[in-house]
Amino acid sequence: MDRYKVYILGATGLVGQRYVQLLARHPWFEIVGMAASEKSAGKRLAETGWVLEEPPPPEVAEMRLEKLEADKVPKVDFVFSALPSEVAAKVEPELAAKGYTILSNSSNMRMEPDVPLVIPEVNPEDLSLVEKQKAGRGWRGAVVKKPNCTTTILNLPLKPILDEWGIERVHVVTMQALSGAGYAGVPSVAIMDNIIPYIKGEEEKVVAETRKILKADFDVYVTTTRAPVLDGHLEVVYVDTKRDFGLEAVADSLERFRGLPQELKLPTAPEKPIEVKRQIDRPQPRLDRWAGKGMAVVVGRLRKLSPRKLAMVVLGHNTVRGAAGNSVLTAELMIANRV
Amino acid sequence: MDRYKVYILGATGLVGQRYVQLLARHPWFEIVGMAASEKSAGKRLAETGWVLEEPPPPEVAEMRLEKLEADKVPKVDFVFSALPSEVAAKVEPELAAKGYTILSNSSNMRMEPDVPLVIPEVNPEDLSLVEKQKAGRGWRGAVVKKPNCTTTILNLPLKPILDEWGIERVHVVTMQALSGAGYAGVPSVAIMDNIIPYIKGEEEKVVAETRKILKADFDVYVTTTRAPVLDGHLEVVYVDTKRDFGLEAVADSLERFRGLPQELKLPTAPEKPIEVKRQIDRPQPRLDRWAGKGMAVVVGRLRKLSPRKLAMVVLGHNTVRGAAGNSVLTAELMIANRV
Amino acid sequence: MDRYKVYILGATGLVGQRYVQLLARHPWFEIVGMAASEKSAGKRLAETGWVLEEPPPPEVAEMRLEKLEADKVPKVDFVFSALPSEVAAKVEPELAAKGYTILSNSSNMRMEPDVPLVIPEVNPEDLSLVEKQKAGRGWRGAVVKKPNCTTTILNLPLKPILDEWGIERVHVVTMQALSGAGYAGVPSVAIMDNIIPYIKGEEEKVVAETRKILKADFDVYVTTTRAPVLDGHLEVVYVDTKRDFGLEAVADSLERFRGLPQELKLPTAPEKPIEVKRQIDRPQPRLDRWAGKGMAVVVGRLRKLSPRKLAMVVLGHNTVRGAAGNSVLTAELMIANRV
Amino acid sequence: MDRYKVYILGATGLVGQRYVQLLARHPWFEIVGMAASEKSAGKRLAETGWVLEEPPPPEVAEMRLEKLEADKVPKVDFVFSALPSEVAAKVEPELAAKGYTILSNSSNMRMEPDVPLVIPEVNPEDLSLVEKQKAGRGWRGAVVKKPNCTTTILNLPLKPILDEWGIERVHVVTMQALSGAGYAGVPSVAIMDNIIPYIKGEEEKVVAETRKILKADFDVYVTTTRAPVLDGHLEVVYVDTKRDFGLEAVADSLERFRGLPQELKLPTAPEKPIEVKRQIDRPQPRLDRWAGKGMAVVVGRLRKLSPRKLAMVVLGHNTVRGAAGNSVLTAELMIANRV
């Protein structure tokens, strides 16, 4: 089949590089162009400070980055955006009005009621907001958002628990990877031999986005911290359920959890969106972040602390499942579902 | 005045080195000997792999380590023990029976009802168990324990909150320093670019010891993790109080908290046992672990999440306040109080 | 074709795990068994503390480890040994006498004149020592050694330079990865925020082995240090050549270098054994250690400091090219060459 | 005595903070003001992202930073400058012309023949250039430079070797700390689990400055790398001497080395400018960087590799001896010497 043409905005950041990595050899997509800030415009991708664990995909390593200009984006099927939120807030609506379908990583617009905020396994039905968005705004295109990385990793295991046992409240403490702050986000002098117990804006996002995604009104208490880890957000979660549960039943429910992407066998869908580890000292960021090619979350240390209190440790790859991978999977779902 | 004579058991480990550091220039104490494992016996202290941030105190750098033998410990006023728990379980009762007063860092005996488990600012009254212990066991000496490092750092700020607002339950997630596991405890290959979400035996200790120290029966839910930080345990704590609180009142209560060691102006007592940080991104292990010369805990990110739910981040130096320093302060209290 | 049967000694260490990873899906080899120390014997491989970046290969994850006993090793075509040298010194000769062909990672026997010490691209001719070894020792099998990891990574780029310009002397300073010391080799408390400027026995090995491999008598001055890096040894090398050189000619010679494994298209042979980086800040361990699937060394910062003084920075994956990968490639060469 | 009034330019950077730390309680100096970039101007020092291991000195914690304006610097005895070089290149000459004596950390002007580039123990005589500078430029004040941090740490041990045995050539490889690049200089994502084998402009500086300081024309071959270490530059040095040497004689010569600052008992002068370590695995950055309160360099691994080839490992605190401390000591020397 002819491949869908895609364009990447903000291709040189850490999430942008993941987009490139995931899309360059994707069976359904073809990268026809990439835009970046003025500093990188005109350079070949390979010259722009690629820092992922593998070199830039040869398919696009020689492609030249273009300067980001909304009226020069070529005609494509999907635009993947990893722009800084303040830039995205201007560029994305402009492109959507012109007819582009934008899968966006940026935090602007996430909480607007006509904007889908989608984890494909959890709330695929929210993609139907696209039609409402187009109609209400008079846009020919649309903006589809992925949640904050911490939210996505948290919501995947909460979904089957919510469905089977109900949730009263959740206490969360995260230890988040450096890549979540972008390439220059955390100076080495700030984080070596250290932990920083605050990430600007993060806690509010997790609370608000979780409610929007799960359509549930339980309380979410979150403390987010930055740890000296390259990739992989670890989250310690205490869940007060509405109904009593069995520990094995929870483990089983998490392991058997499947969503529409698995049903449709989408190319980027992990076989199991949630993997359950039985070893007592897992999940660990460095050992488990690549589960399901970075698209699965790994749950461990399942403990029943009282009749309706569950404890668990959750890990996910923040720039794959938590960012670029989630958007690519969403685009696949839109194609498969003809949204 | 003549100084009290002290002896150190297990002087070459990370906690043992802190004992040496704190006691070598202490105004009240004089180190008259140190014992270590067979491997180090006979060596000068300076030859035994000293790894603290400052060199061995010149006063004792040339002192030779003795082989640990219970019947060769000289007559001293206090024995400070940083032995592995399985060794301590044999040696400490033997020494206590003979008349030695042992301030011990090891986890054996901590939960026995006649054994004081003391944070000097929190439960100094438990030192009265010493007499009960001697009488009940027919010992001429006694064993006095310091709690697990994580427990000590947690209980200091819980104490004033408990006293003023009552506590219903506590959710805790820790990020603990490498030094807490001892010199060879965590291989570098295991922890670089990683977090390990499990520390053997730790969670059970925090729960049980907190109840013993605070004499309270609220629920304590704890998840302990190991992070790539040299010194300083960080603890994220959610406290459900019994009564509504004001955030400033809590901050004020923590800052004003003083205990018997402050009243008695003991040499190792920090002026403020609890420091409250107003900067939003504190406490941080590397920047705050030396508060009060390592004897203060630092509390930050105080938040009121609902009428009776408080969130805070607590930090303490695990081998000073959490270990050797707490025991030295306890010995000072015993002297001042003529226990 | 029928695959060659192989057995792994010391399968649970960091090099042992690399052997498993490389051999489990190898087109020519089939793992028929694995031995480990008493502690791991009887366990399934997946239960034994696997720490590589990818999970244990499913082909062997359920295979049970056997206790190392020289007289219970099954009949196989090759034995790959990652035993501690003091164990290897006893076991390997015993197995060789019985007829096993042993590809060994351990340092014992390396300098014996009838023992091949082989980098397949550099000195494949030394495999002919196998016949001499068998004859001289009356063994039915033989021991073939791979050099010290630092030696291998150094000698690959020295070889084409030696051949074209001659070498007078070499000054080397290394920054070596933690995995080179084995899983528990470097405590985290020892190396975080630190460098250790000494590795026991390493410098002597590099000097002696380089002379044996290159059959050259130039002076080698080496200082080896341990750095907080997981995988990948970095080596800064100053080469005094015998003849004047052009910088581009050297770069070209390194890039064009090919050996017998490339000629024979052996499965584990990297297309280019030496990759030359032009970016001024490369090679870097984290970004370049997987060049050629860990089998290529990467050279950068080529500088001409005086008419016959060349500077360069060399990087190689210490447990792949520097250890298990080099031995697997050697076995392939023995098969192809019918040694 | 009345204390000399000093002013600090660029007080919020890592070197600026060291200036503050060293000068706030200095027996001879009194900080009367501090200037910083527009971003920090008007803030109290304690509010500006202090990151050293100890909190800001209480003496100046509440002092407000001023905006850097050359015509608003108050009348002081010394100006200590930690400005970025491009800012310093404009501001320093302007201030010097007006009559200020500037002790500067920045790299501009270092190689100008009338500018002293001083390590107080090594080339105190070069302070006499101040008069020449004033006369030649018609300035009422003067600019005095400290060398690049790597140069200073290297030149201290080279000096006694040069004096006693002569030097033919030197090969150097450095592993430099993160603080040397400034607070935001090295992103954590760039350096974790990594080494970067290039530091812009550094190698050229070490070569040129060494020749100026030691007034010697031997060859200096340098490769500088960045390592994941907070403070403390490690340098592996091979010295080809002109005359044969005894290893103990070299150790002795280094240990006995004293300069004018020691003779004059200047307050910041370490008792021994060079400490020699006999333990085979020293110096190490984390354990040895505070030798002589950060003002001593530590030398270890002294080896004689051939009759006239010496190897050694050198360590120094890059922001103390390598930067602020060296300038403070220079100011003390100017006072004592009435320059």
Automatic annotation (TrEMBL), chains A, B, C, D:
Alphabetized UniProt keyword annotations: NADP, Oxidoreductase
One of the GO biological process terms: threonine biosynthetic process
One Pfam match: Semialdhyde_dh
Highest taxon of source: Archaea
Record-level Gene Ontology MF annotations: aspartate-semialdehyde dehydrogenase activity; NAD binding; NADP binding; protein dimerization activity
Active site, per annotation: C149 (acyl-thioester intermediate), H233 (proton acceptor)
Signal peptide: none
SUPFAM superfamilies for this protein: Glyceraldehyde-3-phosphate dehydrogenase-like, C-terminal domain, NAD(P)-binding Rossmann-fold domains
Top-level enzyme category: oxidoreductase
EC number, UniProt record: 1.2.1.11
Segments forming domain Semialdehyde dehydrogenase NAD-binding: 5-130
PANTHER family hit by this protein: ASPARTATE-SEMIALDEHYDE DEHYDROGENASE (PTHR46718:SF1)
Family in the record: Belongs to the aspartate-semialdehyde dehydrogenase family.
Protein name as catalogued: Aspartate-semialdehyde dehydrogenase
Name of the gene encoding the protein in the UniProt record: asd
